[in-house]
Each structure stands twice: as structure tokens, then as C-alpha cells.
Design a protein that fits this description.
- By secondary structure, the protein is α/β, with parallel strands linked by helices.
- The protein has 5 domains: about 90 residues, Death Domain, Fas (Orthogonal Bundle); about 200 residues, P-loop containing nucleotide triphosphate hydrolases (Rossmann fold), CATH 3.40.50.300; about 80 residues, no CATH class; about 80 residues, Arc Repressor Mutant, subunit A; about 140 residues, Ribonuclease Inhibitor (Leucine-rich repeat, LRR (right-handed beta-alpha superhelix)), CATH 3.80.10.10.
- Helix content is about 45%, strand content about 10%.
- The chain starts with 5 loop residues before the first helix and ends with a strand.
- One of its GO terms (biological process) is inflammatory response.
- It is found in: Endoplasmic reticulum; Golgi apparatus; Inflammasome; Secreted.
């Protein structure tokens, strides 16, 4: 028989307790019930259901248990039989808690990323990497923002907290009822909330709460009139919920409002208009204010995630709240994220070493969305079966991809001219870079015409600085490197008539920027590197198609002339023109355009670098340029060290009678020797003096000697080669393809 569950048993008892008139009234009301997608009970079946057990069985067959119980509860309420309705609800509550947890698991356990294939969902538990978060009273925040420091992300451990401790008593024994989780766009707020929901379902987090309701503020912003009960209903899978049980045990309820800034309205409702009845429908703003001001469900707990820009508005509504800021990935978490993303230790190791070798990229990885961006791009390189250590996607491209992601965060009703906004934002960034400035006052933001909240909050953090008894709001870019990125963009974005005619606007003189860098402003290095990357034709095309901003290629000629002439003053008039600064190779690698590199390198005949610790990224930039440089005649590296590889690389050509050894495959000199041996190379002189060559390095050199058609002079000047190293060099010298005349 259908309807043998405990809830049906209670329903049967309720019907049996009715008078004959009451039973008939229940049947009459039941005949007018119409359900969406379900079967309605035929009229003749209702007539034949003369006994409560027959009617319960009929309802079970037609509606199913959940719908039948919801319908019965509704009918009992219409009949003013609230005690019977509550009795059935109480029985359902026992089952409902488990059903709600199952619903939360279905909603939050898996998610879809932007770049996921159709039907591909990822597990939160397999991808989520713990974030560094810190707790501080927001009014005491001040000084240099974390985003202004390239070591940003290393939290002050004295204030570090975890998700597990957010609702635990503090040192004074006080348990916060309201926690505000603050983070810039891309810092992982929503992902952290998703992980919290999963851990609550699994019984690993917030077990003091019977119910945790997660409300997406983007969806909520579409509502007009709502009650607190409506907010609960939006999170629940069934039409009828045990409202009495939930609301009567409000201390067991946690509301999570994710993305509070999306609501976009000022919270300034007069207190006498606030609600105290959770069932009372009022304008959305009033209902939310009632929760925040605790005139309704005062014993419940709140967790609010928001961007810093919304804090000033939110602070006016809260009392005794606890502020927690997401600082991003720690150094260990960055590496862990790469391994979780790739699910393959070898690929993760290679990708992480690539990123770790680029100081700018590695520093940006403190922002979770930047780690995702870099992994996504490198994964595409793996898919194309490219050598990741020769990846053509330089730092600027990663920034462009990140900017594209930010644009997807814009509200659907945002109609502002992005090009106009970016011009003003980039002008602010460039002005700050020139003045060594990372904090901007509110009047500067308004003076620049940047007071567009839905766009501004994507790029800048808002913070409060305490000055005596006053408290001022200041703004900073999410990360210093992002400020440098937008400063570079300032010089290449197309101007409009308004900008051209503004006499107070910062001059877009690329030559002034380059000359200042050459003379004394070495802190402009990354800005100039980004400048080269932005005028790459692919970057220009991507910016126009995917982001909607126009980049002018006019600066290319300035950059070309500067690189062609900047080293002339460094070489003696009687010497051949040599490149003596490593940054030249980084600029060309960032541009990543072979013809441009060839036009620059064609003006020089040699490389002369001293006392440099060559990181993996340095070697990649150097190798890229050497491969485009047919006119390279000599190369000198004096007292330079090489970053040691930690992972097996593809072996170079092996000499006859030799077997590749693990040390050879790990030699950091292999990529350089392979680049020097590229087809068309005219290298004649190679000097590697006091560079700490290993046995594997000697074998790589031996291979180069055996195959290079023009290499005539090799100077090592290193007495640490050892007998085995010398033997490996001699093996190369004995090969018929060796044309070496001088070995020192």
C-alpha cells in the first residue's frame, strides 16, 4: 500500500481525528487542487475514497509523498486546523533536514568553470585550495594595502583565521553573529562559500546550525517584495517547508549572502519601517535591513561576502560585526593549486616552474583567478603539445585574459562606455606609477570621473584609513602589478576628443617613459614590459574582440627605435654593438613577435652579460631571442648562474656512443645550447666564464660543439669542470662536425 511512511501515518491519524463534516470538507478542498506536472485525483476516485486510509493511499499514488504532505498541510491551514498541519510538519522536519542537506549537496558539490566543456562539472573538494584570511576590526585598517606589495598574500599570522573559526568565540568569549567576508574580484569569495556549504553537508563545518541558507545576491536583486520566509523558500527544494521549526529555532540558522555589492542600493531605511515578522513581505531593501539591524530573527547568524567598495554602505547597518579579509593564496597554496588544477604531478611541476621563474606572474598568482588564468592558458599549451618552457603566452597575455574575465563580472545592466572608463582608470594608474603612489583618495577618484560603482569595484579596493578622529576612504588597485599593467595600457589606448583636449591630462609620451627608465627609473621595468606586450598584434585583436577596447599600434615605432639605439652608448666605439642588458630580451619576449625581434637584433652582433642569476624565465626570454638572431656572432656570460631544472626535460641530440643520463636531462644549459644551435645560427665565439658548469652542462656543450657549423672559439675559464666534464667536451671535439679552433 502506498503511504506507509511515517509522515503518511501522521496524515492518516489526522484524517481519522476529523469529524465526518471535516473529512468531507478536506475532500472537497482536495478536489480543487491542481498541481503542475503531476496527476490530479479523478473525481470518481475521490467519491469512492470513503475512509481516510483509502484517501491517503489515493493521494500517495497521485502526488507522491512530498507533494501529498505539502497539499495536506495547506488544506489543513485553510481549514484552520493549524495544529494538525504543524503535527505533520514536525514529522516531516526529521526527514526534511536530511533532504535539505541532499539538496545542498546537489547544488554545491559540483560546479562549472568558464572554460569547462559542455556537460563537464568539477568537484569543489578536488579543486578548492585553502585561502589565507585575516580578521581585523575594519576601522583599524590602514597604512599600506596588501595589494601594494609584491609579497602580498603572506598574511600576518597573528590575525590569521580559518573558515572553521569564523563563528567560534573570540578571546573575550564573544561569538560573532555577523561575519563580513571581504575580498576583491577574483579573490575566491564565492568558491569559499561553496566549499563551506559542502563541508556543512559533510558534517565538517558549522554543525551548530541546523540550516545554512546561501542566497546569491545577483539573483536576489531581481526581487521586489520579499519576506524573510521567501528568502528561505528560495533556497529550499520543496514548495512547503517546515517554516515553524526553522523560524522558531532561529539560533540554529545561518544566512549567507554572497556578493552583497550586487544589490546596488543604499541601505538607509528608517528603523520604524523595519519588519519584525519573518512572514511579512516588504520591499527587498527593508527586509534585508530588518535582518541586518536584527529586528527580525535577531538570534540568527549572518555571513556576508562583499567587495571592499560596498563596505561603507554596509557598515552603517551593522553592529558588533566581525570583518575578515581574503588575502589570497600563500606561497604553498599557489603550488598546491597548480597540482589540483592539472591532476598530473609532472604537468603541474612544469607549469609551476614556468610561473615561479617569472616574478611578476608568480606574484600575481596570489589572486586565485590569476592562478586559474595562468593554469588555463598553460593547459592549452599542453593540449597543443607545445614545449611549455617555450610558451609564447607572456605576462601581458595573462593580464589580457584576466581583464576579459573581469568584464564577465559586469552587471547585465551596465551600459557605460568601457573604453572611456578604461582611459580614466589607466590615467590614474599611470599617474600613480610616476608619483610612486598606490593609494588614491576619494576626491581623486571623483576628480578622474571614475565614480561608476559597477565598474570601479572590479578594479579597485576601497579601504578606510583612520586620521585622528576622522576616517577617510582610500582606494588601491588589487595588486601593484595590475596598476603597472593599466599604466602601460594608458600609453596605447586610443584617445577620444575629450581626452585630447584636456590640458590637465597626463601626457601620453612614450619616449619620455622610455628615457626615464634608461636614466634612473628602473622601477618602470614591468610597466614597459607590459607596454611591449600590449602592442603585439594578437593582443590588439584580442582586446578589441573580447574586451571591447581599442589599442593603438602607434607606439611600436617608438619601442623599435628605442631598442635599436639604447645599447649604442654602452659599447666602446671600436667594439661591435653588444646587448649588455637582460631586460632587452624580456621586452622582446613580451612582444613575442618574431619579425619585430629580428628588426631589433639585426642591429647587434653579440651578447655580453655579467653577474646575473638567470631564472627559468630569463633563460626562456634569452632563448627566444637567440632563435630569431641569425647575426649573433659572439656571446659572453661572465659569473652568471643558471636556475637548476628539477624535472625531466626532453633530451637534446645525443652524441654517437653516448647514453642520455638523468643529470644531462636536467641540465639548465640544454635550452641555451639548443637555441644557439638553431638553423641559420652564425655564432663564432662563446664565452661561459665562471658560470659553475656541471657535468650535464659540459655534455650539452659537447653536443653543441659536435653539430655547430660556425662555432670557432669556446672560452670557459672555469676550473671546476672536473675530469668527467673535460672528457665530455673532448667527446664533442672529436666529432667530424666540430669546427672549433680555440678552446680556453
Amino acid at each position: 500500500m502506498v503511504g506507509e511512511g511515517s509522515a503518511f501515518t501522521v496524515l492518516l491519524g489526522a484524517l481519522e481525528g476529523l469529524t465526518l463534516e471535516g473529512f468531507q470538507e478536506f475532500k472537497t478542498k482536495l478536489s480543487h487542487v491542481h498541481t503542475n506536472g503531476g496527476w490530479n485525483i479523478p473525481e470518481d476516485a475521490l467519491v469512492e475514497a470513503m475512509h481516510p486510509s483509502t484517501l491517503v493511499n489515493c493521494m500517495g499514488k497521485s502526488y507522491g509523498e512530498d507533494a501529498a504532505m505539502d497539499i495536506a498541510i495547506g488544506l489543513f491551514e485553510e481549514m484552520n486546523q493549524r495544529d494538525l498541519a504543524e503535527k505533520i510538519l514536525d514529522e516531516k522536519v526529521k526527514e526534511y533536514k536530511q533532504k535539505y542537506r541532499e539538496h545542498v549537496a546537489r547544488e554545491f558539490l559540483r560546479y562549472k568553470e568558464v572554460n569547462s566543456c559542455l556537460g563537464e562539472n568539477l568537484s569543489v573538494s578536488s579543486r578548492y585550495t585553502a585561502l589565507t584570511i585575516a580578521k581585523k576590526p575594519w576601522s583599524q585598517r590602514g597604512g599600506k594595502p596588501e595589494g601594494a606589495d609584491v609579497s602580498w598574500g603572506c598574511a600576518d599570522t597573528t590575525s590569521a583565521v580559518t573558515a572553521q573559526t569564523l563563528f567560534k568565540p573570540d578571546e573575550d568569549g564573544q561569538t560573532p553573529q555577523t561575519v563580513v567576508l571581504v575580498g576583491a574580484p577574483g579573490m575566491g569569495k564565492t568558491m569559499m562559500v561553496r566549499k563551506m556549504m559542502v563541508e556543512w553537508v559533510e558534517g565538517a563545518l558549522y554543525m551548530q546550525f541546523n540550516y545554512v541558507f546561501c542566497i546569491d545576491c545577483k539573483e536576489l536583486s531581481l526581487s521586489k517584495q520579499v519576506s524573510v520566509l521567501d528568502l528561505v523558500s528560495k533556497c529550499c527544494p520543496h514548495q512547503r517547508i517546515p517554516a515553524g521549526s526553522i523560524l522558531d529555532n532561529q539560533e540554529k540558522v545561518l544566512f549567507i549572502f554572497d556578493g552583497f555589492e550586487a544589490l546596488g542600493f543604499p541601505l538607509a531605511q528608517p528603523k520604524d519601517e523595519l519588519s519584525s515578522d519573518p512572514r511579512e513581505a516588504k520591499p527587498l531593501e527593508t527586509t534585508l535591513m530588518s535582518l541586518l539591524k536584527r529586528t527580525v530573527l535577531p538570534a540568527s547568524s549572518l555571513l556576508i561576502t562583499t567587495r571592499p567598495m560596498a563596505l561603507q554602505n554596509l557598515r552603517r547597518c551593522l553592529e558588533g560585526e566581525c570583518y575578515v579579509e581574503i588575502l589570497g593564496f600563500s606561497a604553498a597554496a599557489r603550488e598546491e593549486y597548480f597540482h589540483r588544477y592539472f591532476k598530473n604531478d609532472n604537468k603541474a611541476d612544469v607549469a609551476f616552474r614556468f610561473t615561479r621563474g617569472n616574478e611578476a606572474l608568480y606574484s600575481l598568482c596570489v589572486i586565485p583567478i590569476m592562478s586559474w588564468t595562468i593554469c588555463t592558458i598553460l593547459e592549452q599549451e599542453f593540449y597543443k603539445k607545445n614545449n611549455i618552457l617555450e610558451c609564447s603566452k607572456a605576462t601581458t597575455w595573462m593580464g589580457m585574459f584576466y581583464l576579459s574575465w573581469l568584464m564577465k563580472c559586469r552587471g547585465s545592466d551596465a551600459q557605460q562606455d568601457l573604453q572611456q572608463f578604461l582611459r580614466k582608470l589607466c590615467s590614474l594608474a599611470a599617474d600613480g606609477i610616476w608619483k610612486h603612489k598606490v593609494l588614491f583618495e576619494e576626491k581623486e577618484i571623483k576628480g578622474c570621473g571614475l565614480d561608476w560603482p559597477d565598474l570601479l569595484s572590479l578594479f579597485l579596493n576601497e579601504k578606510s584609513l583612520k586620521k585622528g578622529v576622522d576616517q577617510d576612504n582610500v582606494y588601491s588597485f588589487t595588486h601593484l602589478h595590475l596598476q603597472e599593467y593599466f599604466a602601460a595600457m594608458f600609453y596605447v589606448l586610443d584617445d577620444d576628443e575629450e581626452t585630447v583636449s584636456d590640458p590637465e591630462a597626463l601626457a601620453k609620451n612614450v619616449n619620455t617613459l622610455l628615457e626615464s627608465y634608461s636614466k634612473s627609473r628602473k622601477d618602470l621595468n614591468l610597466t614597459i614590459r607590459f607596454l611591449f606586450g600590449l602592442v603585439n598584434p594578437k593582443s590588439i585583436e584580442y582586446a578589441g574582440e573580447r574586451i571591447g577596447c581599442r589599442i593603438s599600434p602607434r607606439a611600436r615605432e617608438n619601442l623599435l627605435r628605442w631598442l635599436q639605439t639604447r645599447h649604442r652608448g654602452l659599447s666602446h666605439p671600436s667594439e661591435a654593438l653588444m646587448i649588455k642588458e637582460l631586460d632587452t630580451f624580456h621586452f622582446l619576449f613580451e612582444m613575442n613577435e618574431k619579425s619585430f625581434a629580428q628588426n631589433v637584433l639585426g642591429c647587434f652582433t653579440g651578447i655580453d652579460l655579467h653577474d646575473i642569476k638567470l631564472t627559468l624565465y630569463d633563460q626562456m626570454a634569452l632563448c627566444f631571442c637567440i632563435k630569431q638572431w641569425d647575426g649573433l656572432d659572439s656571446m659572453t656570460l661572465r659569473s652568471c648562474s643558471f636556475h637548476q631544472q628539477q624535472c625531466r626535460e626532453e633530451p637534446a641530440t645525443v652524441l654517437p656512443g653516448q647514453h642520455p643520463r638523468q643529470e644531462e636531462l636536467r641540465s639548465p644549459l640544454h635550452p641555451l645550447c639548443q637555441a644557439l644551435g638553431h638553423a641559420g645560427s652564425s655564432l663564432r665565439n662563446l664565452r661561459l666564464q665562471w658560470c659553475g658548469l656541471t657535468e650535464g652542462g659540459c655534455e650539452a656543450l659537447g653536443t653543441l660543439l659536435a653539430t655547430h657549423p660556425s662555432l670557432a672559439c669556446l672560452e670557459l675559464g672555469d676550473r671546476a669542470l672536473g675530469d668527467s666534464g673535460v672528457q665530455l667536451l673532448c667527446t664533442g671535439l672529436r666529432q667530424p662536425g666540430c669546427h672549433l679552433h680555440i678552446l680556453r
